[in-house]
Design brief:
The chain is of the alpha+beta class and 230 residues long. The chain has six helices and eleven strands. It has helices at 2-7, 52-56, 58-72, 139-143, 149-170, 172-180, and strands at residues 15-18, 40-46, 80-83, 87-90, 93-103, 111-118, 189-193, 198-206, 212-216, 219-223, 227-229. It has a six-stranded antiparallel sheet. Strand 9 and strand 10 form a beta hairpin. The radius of gyration is 17 Å and the shape is globular.
Length: 230
């Protein structure tokens, strides 16, 4: 992500950056990100159309691209689900995460960096993740499949390009429909936590702006950003 920010002003078009080793990896909200050898860490730098709201919807594009990449390398489809807003699950454990960082001034987004981490070879130890987080898993640990980061990027980049073309041509609606078809815990009771409060309700849908919609005892609630717990 640091390299993405550095090169973004010089790029004429989108570019993937693959890191086989990282010394300053980070996740959401500045959290440490552990990258065992053989795992996947890459960032896509692009110049999106529209403002921050449209840029943020690329997390759904990236989630679908990750799902397609997993299918392409041989992961059975019944093992994969998508967790709002930016995780991919394998057998119910977290196998991949997405981090979006926009570059620009005010309401304008000059560049967007989409960071993606995938536990291809190994998963972090439970002590290395938040106490309330889903257990981390790896592709190799759950399926026995051995995939190099370079090979995975070939599938991921192609899948992202397909969904990005769909998004820019037809908008968020078909992306939203496809994402919901693979959403984890849709129709079930989940908890959304922010720094200010906590909301528990039935996961009803994701709205046209990408917000999580929960049906709670106090009525329907739309949540733009939160940590989700099952």
């Amino acid at each position: 992500m640091l390299e993405a920010a550095r090169v973004a002003p010089t790029l004429a078009g989108p570019e993937w950056i693959l890191a086989l080793r990282q010394t300053a990896a980070r996740g959401r909200r500045g959290r440490a990100w552990v990258q065992p050898k053989g795992n996947f860490s890459a960032s896509l730098v692009m110049r999106p159309e529209g403002g921050p709201g449209q840029a943020a919807l690329r997390s759904f594009v990236a989630s679908l691209a990750l799902r397609d990449a997993f299918l392409a390398v041989g992961v059975p489809k019944h093992m994969i689900s998508l967790k709002w807003p930016n995780d991919v699950l394998l057998n119910g454990g977290k196998v991949a995460g997405i981090l979006l960082e926009s570059l620009g001034a005010g309401a304008a987004v000059s560049h967007l960096a989409i960071g993606i981490g995938v536990n291809l070879a190994a998963a972090p130890k439970p002590a290395e993740v938040d106490a309330h987080a889903l257990p981390p898993v790896s592709v190799f640990g759950e399926t026995g499949l051995q995939i190099t980061p370079q090979d995975f990027l070939d599938f991921l980049a192609a899948a992202f390009a397909r969904y990005e073309a769909q998004f820019t041509t037809y908008g968020f609606a078909p992306i939203r429909t496809e994402w919901l078809a693979h959403a984890a815990r849709l129709g079930e009771t989940i908890t959304a936590r922010t720094a200010q409060d906590e909301t528990t309700g039935v996961f009803e849908t994701v709205d046209e702006d990408g917000n999580l919609v929960l049906e709670t005892p106090k009525g329907r609630r739309s949540i733009p950003a939160a940590e989700i717990h099952f």
